[in-house]
Design goal:
Layout lengths: L4 E5 L5 E14 L4 E7 L3 E6 L2 E5 L3 H15 L5 E6 L4 H7 L6 E5 L3 H10 L1 H4 L8 E4 L3 H7 L4 E7 L15 H8 L2 E9 L6 H4 L5
Parallel strand pairs: 6-7, 6-9, 7-8, 9-10
Antiparallel strand pairs: 1-2, 2-3, 3-4, 4-5
Helix pairs in contact: 1-2
């Protein structure tokens, strides 16, 4: 990220260039490099380790699609666990349901969450201050190993499983067996599973 533009490459080989208006935050947290910028075309955008996570123009598409199908599957979702989701938008979507009595959000990167709370109010819309929310900054796998709580819906909204990255251990069979053990009756789990870009998905299609 330099000058007045930002370029990043997609796995399909495309190169996306964003014209920057302002850099609001640029810092190295204990876990990743974070940038929050204002762009000319997509509005405000969050980058982690150089990869775009969400942008003001279309973040609602991703977050609604991630959260709402799982919430709709359960007849009465009261207890929700959000793993990751530092922008607060995943939490926002879960809290739209009036049946929700408790929402636990576990995100290991307190610095990233703090930056999102400050600079991305349109994403979280005050969700962090909701009295139904418990926010924990710790490893989600360790949390599941220790808690006995059951949830109606578990939403996993973490970064890609880069080697050595904060989410690497959350893309294993052991983790999903652990998460399954914390689902109540009729429980559902929703997972961020990479891009919907056909150029990315094609090698994995049967």
């Amino acid at each position: 990220m330099s000058g007045l533009s930002l370029e990043f490459s997609k796995r399909s080989g495309e190169v996306i260039r964003l014209d920057l208006r302002r850099v609001l935050a640029a810092r190295r947290t204990a876990y990743q490099q974070l940038e929050i910028v204002d762009t000319a075309s997509f509005g405000r955008a969050l980058f982690l380790d150089g990869k775009v996570q969400s942008a003001e123009l279309d973040e609602f598409v991703y977050h609604e699609a991630l959260v709402q199908p799982a919430m709709a599957l359960h007849p009465r979702p009261e207890r929700v666990l959000v793993i990751g989701g530092g922008e607060g938008a995943t939490l926002r979507e879960a809290l739209r349901h009036p049946t929700v009595k408790r929402a636990v959000m576990v995100d290991i990167d307190a610095e990233a969450v703090a930056a999102c709370r400050e600079y991305l109010p349109a994403w979280h819309q005050g969700a962090f201050a909701d009295p139904r929310v418990e926010l924990l900054h710790r490893d989600a796998r360790g949390y599941l190993e220790e808690t006995s709580e059951l949830f109606d819906v578990i939403i996993v909204d973490v970064t890609d499983p880069l080697a050595g990255g904060p989410a690497y251990r959350l893309f294993t069979q052991e983790f999903y067996r652990l998460a399954r053990g914390h689902l109540g009756a009729a429980g559902a789990i929703a997972v961020q599973a990479e891009s919907a870009d056909l150029g990315v998905l094609e090698p994995h299609l049967a």
